[in-house]
Amino acid sequence: MQGIVGQEGATDFLRRAIATDRLAHAYIFAGPPGVGKMTTARAFARALLCERADGEPCGECRACAKVDHETHPDLYVIGPQGRGRMIPVAVFRDPDTGEGLLHDLSLTPVESARKVALIDQAHAMTTATANCLLKTLEEPPPGALLILVTPRPDDLLETIRSRCHRVRFNALRPGILEEQLLRRGVEPGQARFLSLSSGGSLGRAIMMAEQEGLADLRRRVLELVLALSGRNICSSSARFVELVKQHAPELASGQPGMTAQSAARDTAEWLLDLVALFYRDVAVRQLGVEAELLSNTDVLEQIDRETRLSDTDIRTILDTIETAKERLRSNVTLDVAILECVSQIAEARARPAASSTGTSRSAR
Ligand SMILES: [Zn+2]
Fold first, then answer.
1. Which of 57, 155, 177, 179 could form a disulfide with 195 if both were Cys (CB 3.0 to 4.6 A apart)?
2. Which domains does the chain have, with CATH numbers?
3. Cβ pair 195, 173 in contact under 8 A
4. How many Å lie between the centroid of ligand 1 and the Cα of residue 151?
């Protein structure tokens, strides 16, 4: 299972399971979005179906090639579909004809020793789909192996969870993300920044790197914060909310079952995190740390300008952001949470440095 980064625990476990022929009938691959769960599931399927079958897919045989092109007759890849982004029961078993994945899995494999089904975003199964799957898990057809991939394993029925072996995937370390982004040609300053602001998700980091609008979004959010004064609190807050609403759909895309409200909340949290990351750099810079060690190396000038703030004020800004995120999670409305946050940041930034308590300052 080469090419999968930062998930040695999961890949070692799966490799051993194949090598010792101790395979479960069903697995749940659980972990944050964009950390390699589906990539690993495909590699695992490739290893299971490979004609040389020694725990590691050879990458050269006919079976390996067919898995890569998703044309292998013993491999099924299923995910959410339609506007609702759910997995309808008909995919598993058509109520009228009885056809579907579960019927196919009960047949003898065509070209390999087993049949493998990957169910991406398994939490998007409807109740009917989940109940249908449960019956299969209770009496698994010989030779069939199911992999349920999901960032939200707790949303699966307990009865399903208890019949699957869970394989855990971790958020990726910033160093790994940065290396992967650099390898994909992302410019170093941006790679550093994205590796620290994408919540350990390579998928999200790549998406952010690819969408020019999102790189620009960060610039606009920082501009907005750095222009805050006592006079423009309301308009700045309204502008922040507008940015959130504009970008919520793209940031939420690919996450089934997410409502407009939770997408907006997630987006707001992410934008607030960007601001926090910036002010953490300001705090670090005040200690005289070199520019190369910052997260936002590309906005050094703005960071250095903000070092005029006292460390108390910077702490206030960081605390204010944390509070706003908590309030959003406890369902305070977006407008209210952002207005309060923006006005407190404006207040902290407007305080004359001399009147603040902490006065540690960089010696520059
Ligand atoms: Zn092979």
1. 177
2. 8-168 (3.40.50.300), 211-355 (1.20.272)
3. no
4. 29
How far is the centre of ligand 1, averaged over its atoms, from the C-alpha of 351 (Å)? 66
- Alpha-carbon distance 5 to 35, whole Å? 9
Distance from the Cα of residue 23 to its chain's centroid: 28
Tens-place pLDDT, residues 150-199: 988 999 999 999 999 999 999 999 999 999 999 999 888 888 888 888 87
Integer Cα distance of 19 and 25 in angstroms: 16
Could you tell me the distance, in angstroms and rounded to a whole number, from the CA of residue 60 to the centre of ligand 1? 5
Tokens found for residue 355: 């009147």
Distance 47 CA to ligand 1 centre (A): 7
| Amino acid residing at 122 | A
pTM: 0.73
Q: What is the CA radius of gyration of the chain?
A: 25
Look at residue 350 and give its three-state secondary structure.
Answer: helix
Cα 75 to ligand 1 centroid, rounded to whole Å:
14
Which residue is listed with tokens 């939200």? 152
Per DSSP, 55 falls in state S
Can you give the pLDDT at residue 353? 65
Q: Provide the 8-state DSSP code for 140.
A: P
121-143: burial string, b at 16+ Cβ within 10 Å, e else = bbbbbbeebbebbeebbeebbeb
pLDDT above 70 as % of the chain:
93
Ligand 1 centroid to Cα of residue 2, in Å, is 13
Question: What's the 170 CA to ligand 1 centre distance in angstroms?
Answer: 28
Ligand 1 centroid vs 251 CA: distance in angstroms? 37
Q: What 3-state class would DSSP assign to 119? A: strand
Structure tokens at 149: 């991939």
Centre of ligand 1 to C-alpha 76, Å, is: 17
Handedness of CA 102, 153, 161, 70 (dihedral sign): positive
Note the pLDDT tens digit of each residue in 220-266. 999 999 999 889 999 999 999 999 998 888 766 655 556 778 788 88
